[in-house]
């Protein structure tokens, strides 16, 4: 079994074991992004990792429907039981335009290693850009040995964020934590 399939399988098992946030809302409207638009944007951002990206986006859209926003960015994280993650990117929406966003957050759990990742975050039920600036909690599982794709789901206040990451580094484990989104960069993960 190749690395991408192992990562997708691990993510699917975590989500299937009760960590999923809800059924797919398959309605498309002029404010959401189609699977084809997401794959095209992801290909431009991630480069030639097309098959793994397409499968990951397909699974996310199957579970949660079409998002009404997404973020493209990069992040770095490290953990030894407790960990930290920092990132920055651009939020794309149909009705509010593009905005620079930052995220950071702590985690705790059985988690070791470090990685740098390009990240695409699918965002569901975002009523306004301001609704993104809060803490999104969830469980994350990572298996990176040099590279691969993985995704998880984080929720807060009816908004769901699904980070899709392709990482470089060495990371193994499962952790509980949150991501805090802010309009300006900060070192404070809390």
Describe this structure in words.
This protein has 190 residues and is α+β, with helices and mostly antiparallel strands. The chain is 23% helix and 51% strand. It contains three helices and five strands, in the order αααβββββ. It has helices spanning 3-19, 35-46, 50-64; strands at 69-93, 98-124, 135-151, 154-156, 159-182. Strands 1, 2, 3, 4 and 5 form a five-stranded antiparallel beta sheet that branches. The longest helix is centred in the N-terminal third of the chain and has 17 residues, at 3-19. It is globular.
Keywords:
190 residues; alpha+beta; five-stranded antiparallel sheet; 3 helices; 51% strand
Write the layout of secondary structure elements.
Blueprint: H1 3-19, H2 35-46, H3 50-64, E1 69-93, E2 98-124, E3 135-151, E4 154-156, E5 159-182
Antiparallel strand pairs: 1-2, 2-5, 3-5, 4-5
Helix pairs in contact: 2-3
Quick summary:
With about 190 residues, the chain is α+β, with helices and mostly antiparallel strands.
Structural class: alpha+beta
Shape summary = globular
Tally of strands: 5
* Topology pattern, helix = H, strand = E: HHHEEEEE
Mean of residue pLDDT values:
77
C-alpha Rg, in Å?
15 Å
> What is the number of helices?
3
Largest sheet: 5 strands, antiparallel
Q: Approximately how much beta-strand content do the residues carry?
A: over 45%
* CA distance, first residue to last residue: 38 Å
The residue ranges in which pLDDT falls below 50 over 5 or more consecutive positions are: 1-28
- The proportion of residues forming helix, as a percent range, comes to 10-25%
């Amino acid at each position: 079994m190749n690395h991408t399939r192992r990562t997708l399988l691990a993510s699917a098992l975590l989500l299937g074991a009760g960590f999923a946030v809800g059924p797919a809302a398959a309605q498309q409207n002029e404010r959401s992004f189609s699977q084809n638009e997401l794959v095209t944007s992801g290909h431009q951002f991630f480069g030639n990792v097309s098959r793994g990206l397409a499968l990951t986006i397909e699974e996310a859209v199957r579970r949660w429907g079409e998002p009404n926003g997404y973020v493209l960015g990069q992040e770095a994280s490290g953990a030894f039981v407790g960990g930290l993650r920092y990132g920055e990117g651009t939020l794309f929406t149909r009705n509010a335009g593009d905005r620079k966003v930052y995220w950071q957050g702590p985690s705790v759990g059985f988690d070791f290693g470090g990685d740098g990742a390009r990240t695409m975050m699918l965002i569901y039920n975002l009523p306004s850009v301001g609704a993104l600036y809060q803490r999104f909690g969830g469980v994350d599982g990572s298996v990176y040995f040099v590279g691969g794709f993985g995704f998880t789901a984080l929720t807060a206040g009816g908004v769901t964020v699904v980070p899709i990451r392709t990482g470089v580094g060495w990371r193994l484990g499962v952790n509980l934590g949150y991501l805090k989104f802010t309009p300006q960069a900060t070192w404070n993960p809390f």
